[in-house]
């Protein structure tokens, strides 16, 4: 049943991606604002699965200094807050399309800069770009989204992408074509296996 639900979910967002970029952005903003009408709709702060994913993701980060970090698709900032605690010297930006989600994120992580924006409007260069469970919302614009994320990487920067496994193979294929895959960890001993993929410019 879960696989059928996921298929419907992906089909919905693939259909939305056939709209013009401006209309796609409007639809996604309304969709995620609607979902965030109640706090933490996906239980990101309390789900054992999410907590395991966040812990494994933080452990996978190379032991190096990051001056600037961007978390793309941060929702209410649960993982962004964990990043801020783990990397207190970094300037961290959390980005989401939903202003409703970001209102809560700002309350929970006042030291983080949160920005309401569409992925395709992002600019700047960062030492670490984080993209977790976001790419499947882009549908037919996956290649453009991947290119934009790569464009956010500064010199010798790291891209950290976390997505369901084995779907990550498809979602990460444009990173594989343009960046160096430094490490990949597949966590399978959960009800929803996921891959943590690290890429270097």
From TrEMBL:
One of its GO terms (biological process) is methylation. Signal peptide: none annotated. Pfam families: NodS. It comes from the Bacteria. The keyword Methyltransferase applies. One of its GO terms (molecular function) is S-adenosylmethionine-dependent methyltransferase activity. InterPro entries: SAM-dependent_MTases_sf (IPR029063), SAM-MeTfrase_NodS-like (IPR008715). Keywords: Methyltransferase, Transferase. SUPFAM superfamilies: S-adenosyl-L-methionine-dependent methyltransferases. PANTHER family: TRANS-ACONITATE 2-METHYLTRANSFERASE, TRANS-ACONITATE 2-METHYLTRANSFERASE-RELATED. This is Methyltransferase domain-containing protein. It comes from Herbidospora galbida.
